[in-house]
Amino acid sequence: MFNSLTGTITEKLPQKVHIDTHGIEWDIFVPDTTLDKLPPVGQIGKIYTWMQHTDVLMVLFGFASESDRNLFLDLLKVDGIGPRGALKIMSNVSAEQLVSVLDSGNLGALEKIPGVGKKTAGKMLLQLKGKLSLDNDTVIIKKSTTTPFSNVVTALSNMGYDRKDAEQTVAEINQSLENDESFKNNSASQKEDIVFKRSIVRLAQ
């Protein structure tokens, strides 16, 4: 699999760049923030890549740094955000701004990002809040030091539900699933998603 491409930047377009590597010109989708970081047209540049390969298409996405690519891959972990959606988000907000908004639990600010609605913003808080940080310009995943499903409680609270009601509901659902073998076999993120969805249904009653 391609890790990166180095060649001459031949054209810059909105969310797209063309790069020539020894006579082969690549058509690569990029965030607009990546365009600003790449050298001018005619100069040599390096692009870190990720390929989307399905039965019906093959698309190459590019980033100015490995940290930007890592952020893109983290966004893809959020249910409802595909490659084009992640690209749109990264085109309208820097990695630093996104980390700050997520860590502060600012649901309103997330909703204002083009491509992110209220439902997706809640999922982003649930999946990424407290797990992204910047260290020497690198976006990394931090080990969670919070109690199980505390992110679910925070996401529900930021969606407008009373925090105490959210805590009680999450605790009750967690307890009801303790002996569910199928639930235990899920990953941590899948468990959070299950508890999150069940909590919304119960709180909405």
Topology:
Layout: E1 4-13, E2 16-21, E3 24-29, H1 32-37, E4 44-53, E5 58-63, H2 66-76, H3 83-92, H4 95-104, H5 107-111, H6 118-128, E6 132-135, E7 138-141, H7 150-158, H8 163-176, H9 181-184, H10 188-203
Helix pairs in contact: 2-3, 6-7, 7-8, 7-10, 8-10
Radius of gyration, in Å, reads 20 Å
**Number of structurally distinct domains:** 3
Overall geometry comes to: elongated
The overall average pLDDT, rounded, is 82
As laid out across the biggest beta sheet, the strand order is 3-2-1-4-5
Tell how many strands the DSSP assignment holds. 7
The CATH homologous superfamily of the largest domain is termed: 5' to 3' exonuclease, C-terminal subdomain
Q: Which class best fits the helix and strand makeup?
A: alpha+beta
* CATH topology heading of the largest domain: DNA polymerase, domain 1
Percentage of β-strand residues: 15-25%
Return the CATH architecture of the largest domain. Answer: Orthogonal Bundle
Gap between N and C termini, in Å?
48 Å
